[in-house]
């Protein structure tokens, strides 16, 4: 399967980061005490967003929202349904499988508006629903949150640190499987943010022609970026989209390590923003973030949105789809390999690398 191996790698990474035994190995990858646990990252390094204009919410603020707002919907997200959900989840949380909004048949791209709208309505979510999203990892929750944002959910927040942070703070967990209260009317007939989702490689080519100053930012690891590895068992070719800039977000194909603390909360983005600005990924420009199939791009997208990147986008097809398009039409979808700063080894490839 597309995601499962990726998440097994992520689970190993969590242990190496010191996230502890609370994080389950199949990550795809209580009391009412509200005193911070010793394992929580120092506050100065935390990215804690609590206002209506931001996308990440601290676990204590999330706890208060769940307790005080009966209209709020809580989604626990994962690739595939997890049996661990019933053993302990956030209060009132219902499960949402990422396969409800993306499929292998669709090249792992986000499905059309009507399909995604239906999936959220089945969970009880409309455009006016206060929505809290969390997971055992920082990827699937950001993926689902982005789809909700794109659809037009006005108030969507990612619980910072997810289930791991919730457990670290010893906040109340609920057991058992809950059934969502489905809604019938989403309140929109088209996406609220269509401009923020560039779905396919063909869409990116067209978009770049119409927006020649577009910055294409790769959230893939350095080894993926320079073409040493593809990063995926199901992608044989290596390289990047022509013109891509390295955004320094991940260390492997299954993490966003440069954006995270060891407890899986999002870190203060100061270093990331400084790196982006130094490398031409600036708030004044239109920036399309991408990775292999869209997951790592989502946390970067929200960090950008939170920090003045008004024209942040996601190129959803990523390297997976660009590579396939390149094989069919290499001149229309050229590939770059190597470090762009090294003129001796950097190359642009306009011939097929392999056949599928």
UniProtKB/TrEMBL annotation:
Pfam families annotated for this entry? Answer: Rhodanese
Q: Does the keyword Transmembrane helix apply?
A: no
Q: Which reaction does it catalyse?
A: thiosulfate + hydrogen cyanide = thiocyanate + sulfite + 2 H(+)
* Secretion signal span: 1-25
Which controlled-vocabulary keywords does the entry list?
Repeat, Signal, Transferase
Q: Does the keyword Transferase apply?
A: yes
Q: Which GO terms describe its molecular function?
A: thiosulfate-cyanide sulfurtransferase activity
Tell me which residues make up the Rhodanese domain.
Answer: 68-175, 210-328
Write down the SUPFAM superfamilies for this protein, in alphabetical order. Rhodanese/Cell cycle control phosphatase
- Protein name per UniProt: Sulfurtransferase
Top-level taxonomy: Bacteria, Bacillati, Bacillota, Bacilli, Lactobacillales
């Amino acid at each position: 399967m597309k995601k499962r191996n990726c998440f097994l790698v992520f689970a190993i990474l969590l242990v190496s980061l010191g996230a502890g035994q609370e994080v389950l190995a199949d990550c795809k990858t209580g009391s009412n005490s509200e005193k911070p646990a010793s394992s929580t990252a120092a506050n100065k390094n935390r990215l804690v967003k609590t206002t209506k204009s931001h996308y990440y919410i601290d676990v204590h603020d999330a706890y208060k929202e769940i307790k005080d707002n009966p209209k709020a919907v809580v989604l626990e997200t994962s690739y595939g349904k997890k049996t661990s959900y019933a053993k302990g989840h956030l209060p009132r949380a219902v499960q949402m499988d990422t396969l409800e909004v993306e499929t292998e048949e669709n090249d792992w791209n986000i499905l059309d508006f009507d399909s995604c709208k239906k999936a959220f309505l089945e969970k009880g979510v409309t455009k006016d629903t206060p929505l809290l999203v969390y997971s055992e990892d920082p990827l699937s929750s950001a993926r689902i949150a982005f789809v909700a944002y794109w659809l037009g959910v006005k108030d969507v927040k990612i619980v910072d640190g997810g289930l791991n942070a919730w457990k670290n703070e010893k906040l109340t967990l609920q057991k058992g499987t809950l059934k969502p209260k489905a809604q019938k009317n989403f309140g929109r007939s088209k996406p609220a943010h269509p401009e923020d989702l560039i779905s396919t490689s063909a869409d990116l080519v067209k978009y770049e022609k119409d927006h020649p100053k577009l910055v294409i930012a790769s959230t893939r690891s350095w080894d993926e970026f320079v073409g040493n590895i593809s990063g995926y068992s199901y992608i044989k070719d290596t390289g990047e989209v022509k013109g891509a800039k390295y955004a320094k977000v991940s260390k492997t194909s299954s993490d966003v390590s440069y954006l995270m603390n060891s407890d899986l909360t999002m870190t203060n983005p100061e270093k990331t923003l400084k790196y982006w600005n130094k490398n031409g990924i600036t708030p004044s420009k239109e920036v399309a973030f991408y990775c292999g199939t869209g997951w790592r791009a989502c946390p970067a997208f929200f960090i950008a949105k939170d920090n003045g990147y008004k024209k942040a986008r996601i190129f959803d097809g990523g390297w997976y789809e660009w590579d396939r398009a390149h094989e069919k039409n290499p001149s229309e979808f050229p590939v770059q390999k190597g470090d762009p700063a090294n003129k001796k080894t950097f190359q642009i490839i306009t011939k097929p690398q392999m056949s599928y």
